[in-house]
Specification:
By secondary structure, the protein is an alpha+beta fold. It has one domain: Up-down Bundle (Outer membrane efflux proteins (OEP)). Helices cover 68% and strands 10% of the residues. The protein has ten helices and six strands. The protein starts with a helix and ends with a helix.
Length: 440
């Protein structure tokens, strides 16, 4: 008995290890994990950090650069080749430049473009995670419905086969029943592929590759109804493109105004001379009484000719024009797509209502057939098992079609929310609602 008990425990442990646990994850958690683990979001955040550092670099030219040096460790003989110092401190900074103001505005626009790009990337990742979650939920529900439909189709084939043997049906009816069964099996195989594909993509998005994912249908928040007129505001991606164009334009202004304009810089230096490891005293006797030296510089320079910077100004101006036109083109394309989505959402809502009504009709027809089959009244039409299974198959098929229509409507609404810049607000309200529900 002890050996048998140990064997049962070992078998249970092996089965537990061999069977992977399916992780159940809510809608808002999936979107949050996707935003936290997305490589695209992390790259956009790195771009924001780089743009912020570039802006700080443009500002820091007005802060003195301080350096220290020493040549006390060396030795010289004969006429001094340089100024021997125990240590030396120097500071240098820019006071005024016509071009630097343009460079500051360019860096500021670059930072704004990077932040807008980050927002656009986050919206894209959130949209991808939301649609993948909805797709997986729809596919899983369809797979369950198709499994029931396949069972009814298999029973229908057996019933028609028995009727054929009894002379109550034709071979054509059996072929039709078999065709229905094969068609449902093919649809089930396609749905299984969709479930596997969506689950794998969602697992990669949330940073858990290879983990079986199960969705929670009740956690999906309701989508807001679409407004009658689409918003005319630019998306974050279009705003980022225009900000990048402004950055290049300011860069071109700065390069164009570099020559023939004064630049003012400030410098200071302190040195402590060395007299013990060189012959400097022999040539400059006064250094014995004053080994310290301090200098102050207020310099004004005017660049007269810089062909390279002129060429760079033309290059930046051309890039600015290209980015401006590209942003305008993207804005027109997004505006047209937004209007199409607005119209298609209305049509998809009507299709979803129609599919729901078709499913209700099929459900009601099934209920009528079940009532007639249970009553056994002679006045009611004769209901055969074949009619019952056919009605069940039709009801399940209408249910699958209703799931497709509902998903297409929700997909269109989510895409429209992203293009109108309201996706983040909807996700935040959904997360707040889920936290409120979770409180005891």
């Amino acid at each position: 008995m002890t050996r048998l008990f140990r064997l049962l425990i070992a078998c249970f442990a092996v089965a537990s290890v061999a069977t992977p646990a399916r992780s159940q994850i809510s809608f808002t958690t999936a979107v949050d994990l996707a935003l936290k683990n997305s490589p695209r979001v992390k790259m956009a955040e790195a771009d924001v950090a780089r743009a912020r550092a570039s802006l700080e670099e443009a500002k820091d030219v007005y802060i003195p650069t301080i350096g220290a040096a020493s040549s006390a460790g060396g030795y010289s003989y004969g006429f001094p080749l340089g100024t021997p110092t125990v240590f030396q401190l120097s500071a240098q900074s820019l006071v005024f430049s016509f071009s630097q103001r343009d460079y500051l505005r360019s860096a500021s626009s670059g930072l704004k473009a990077a932040m807008l790009t980050l927002r656009d990337v986050r919206d894209q990742v959130a949209e991808d995670a939301a649609l993948t979650y909805l797709s997986l939920d729809r596919a899983q529900q369809q797979r369950a419905a198709l499994a029931q439909e396949a069972a009814h189709a298999s029973r229908l084939v057996n019933i028609v086969n028995d009727r054929l043997e009894g002379g109550q049906d034709t071979a054509m009816e059996l072929t039709k029943a078999r065709r229905t069964s094969v068609q449902i099996r093919l649809q089930s195989l396609q749905t299984d592929d969709e479930v596997a594909s969506f689950a794998d993509h969602l697992a990669n998005l949330i940073g858990l590759p290879g983990t079986p994912i199960a969705v929670v249908s009740d956690s999906i928040p309701a989508l807001p109804s679409n407004s009658s007129t689409p918003s005319s505001s630019d998306t974050a991606g279009v705003q980022a493109a225009f900000a990048s164009a402004r950055s290049k334009r300011e860069q071109a202004f700065g390069d164009a105004r570099y020559t023939l304009r004064p630049q003012i810089s400030l410098g200071a230096q302190y040195s402590r001379f060395s007299t013990y490891n060189n012959n400097y005293v022999q040539y400059y006797p006064g250094i014995q009484n004053q080994p310290n030296a301090f200098g102050f510089e207020f310099a004004i320079s005017v660049p007269l000719l810089d062909m390279g910077r002129r060429a760079k100004a033309r290059q930046s101006a051309a890039e600015a024009i290209h980015l401006e036109q590209e942003a305008a083109y993207d804005r027109d394309q997004i505006s047209e797509g937004r209007l199409k989505l607005q119209h298609s959402s209305v049509e998809l809502a009507a299709r979803a209502d129609l599919a729901s009504l078709d499913r209700d009709i099929a459900q009601q027809q099934l209920e009528v057939i079940l009532v007639q089959a249970a009553s056994g009244s002679s006045s009611a039409p004769l209901v055969t098992p074949k009619d019952e299974e056919s009605a069940r198959i039709q009801e399940r098929q209408r249910y699958v079609e209703m799931l497709d229509a509902d998903f297409q409507l929700r997909e269109s609404k989510i895409q429209l929310l992203r293009q109108t810049g309201e996706l983040d607000d909807w996700l935040n309200s959904a997360a707040a609602a889920s936290l409120t529900v979770a409180k005891p």
